[in-house]
Amino acid sequence: MIGFYFNPSIHPRSNNIMPKEKTVILVANGDLRLSANQNCWAEQEKMEKELAKVFASMGAKLKRAHPYKKELKHGFISSQREGMDVFAKIDRKAPLVVAESVWQYSHHLLHGLISHEGPILTVANWSGTWPGLVGMLNLNGSLTKAGVRYSTLWSENFSEDKAFLKNLESWLKTGSIQHPITHVKKYMARNVPDRAKKVADKLAKDLDKNKAIMGVFDEFCMGMYNAAIPDELLFQTGVYKEQLSQSALFAEMRNVTKAEAEEVYNFIVKRGFNFHFGKNGKKDLTKAQVLDQCRMYVAACRIGDTFGCDALGIQYQQGLKDLCPASDLVEGMLNSTDRPPVKNAAGKIIKAGEPYPHFNEVDECCGLDSLLTNRIHKALRQPVETTLHDLRWGDWDASGTTDEYVWVFLISGSAPVEHHIDGWKGSHGFRQPAMYFPLGGSTLHGVAKPGEIVWSRVFIEEGKLKMDIGRAKVITLPEKETQRRLNETTPQWPIMHAVTYGVSRDQMMARHKANHINVAYANNAAQADQCLYAKAELAKRLGIEVFLCGNKADGSKF
């Protein structure tokens, strides 16, 4: 059963009793960055008008809890303090809708939703234009972690989507929605290949004895409450945090010489990477921006080495965004096996010939996942490069190449070149969008190569670490269709065309408790299955509750 999540020990007052008077309060949460809120407002306004008509057709009135701000040119809640002031005036027993067509900072609202006593519904428009689906999934994951009961809905066309209308009508009557998740089953360690068991056993014992460190350059990025793992939950896994500072990273960047930055730059240029430079740094990518990113790459490697970190997470979006270019090219290089060598103070190359796993936006759930994945795949002699992606959007293939539903996995950074068609030569550096990244910096854009992948997500529910894991394939689409999908989202960012095995669009949305999804390739379908089993078994031995989602490539059950 899905559609709402509830931990009565955390939130005993929450309920789903729908009052007779059908006035539903609407809140619209947004970004912290003014430029993003202003650019995205038109899409949000359009969505709210459509929702209001649908609610009215069902005899309900949708009432905004906060006004459009003329001086700021948007109507989003844009800080935690503002959110608290808004919720202080809301009737706690009123039915409440959180409508999202943009990326949003969950902590702007979390306080009010934790205290709210009436039915809560999160809604997103099925569109790639802005990351509304991503924002809603982050809020859902945050509410799940906080133990708040809620329902959730999404639609491409609110007024004509029969399933959406039926579910909304149910929510207006009962205060809850239940989505079927028959594709999910708890991992019971059955039918696990012997090799997968042996690998999991060996790695679990090693983590228990030798421990591992995630280096965290400042926690809690962009309001992602769901992405911060309490230390107490990590202890059982043998993984610990090294709390690092972004100011220390910036200071170390200043110690990297121009010659060292040029060495990194020359390495990737010689590999065939395609930079798209311009002259105006406010809107174009410049070499000076890239050299600063090369300094960050060297600095991150050296700090990570100094503290013995096995994986790194850079927050960037707060603080560093006002000091230096984006971290995304850095993140992609770190996650690549074929990356520029960096020497430590003793003259030794740091993690020579292997990735330095990085988790974008310090999503610690992805950090733990990538650390485990790296070790599993290394032991099974499979590709070790990992990345997270936003579960950004999905659509049917307009070119007719496939009749399968194709997801758009897309992220601003972190994707390794080994995931891209033609590697370095098939990858491009575009300037990051100014509305998110005022000081620019290069992306590591590419189109993911076809192949078999394992996808997964670590999340927190009922005070426990849990993991969903499944199988998928990456397919190739015609260039025109790929470009259509990029244009519908953010064309500067790396993209993956993913088809999930045995998990439909709506099943994924109903179950997934995060904005991010981890992915790693395997050499073929059978070996991908073995990687899945080995990671599930390792996670189980580390005290993580594991759930298998969907089925294998041949349609058989796990």
Give a summary of the structure in a few sentences:
33% of the residues lie in helices and 19% in strands.
| Through-space gap between termini | 20 Å
- Architecture of the largest domain, CATH level 2? Alpha-Beta Barrel
**Could you give the count of β-strands?**
18
Task: Give the helix proportion (percent range).
Answer: 25-40%
* Main beta sheet strand tally, sense and closure: 6 strands, antiparallel, barrel
Which class of secondary structure composition applies to the elements? alpha/beta
Whole-number mean pLDDT: 96
Please tell me how large the radius of gyration is: 23 Å
Ranges with pLDDT <50 over ≥5 residues?
1-13
What is the CATH class designation of the largest domain? Alpha Beta
Q: How large is the share of residues in beta strands?
A: 15-25%
The rough form would be described as globular
- Tally of helical segments: 15
User: Going by CATH, what is the homologous superfamily of the largest domain?
Assistant: L-fucose/L-arabinose isomerase, C-terminal
Question: Please, could you describe this protein's structure?
Answer:
It is built from 15 helices and 18 strands. The protein is an alpha/beta fold. The chain has a 6-stranded antiparallel beta barrel with strand order 11-12-16-15-14-17, surrounded by 4 helices. A hairpin with an 8-residue loop joins strand 11 and strand 12. The two termini are 20 Å apart. The model is unreliable at 1-13 (pLDDT under 50).
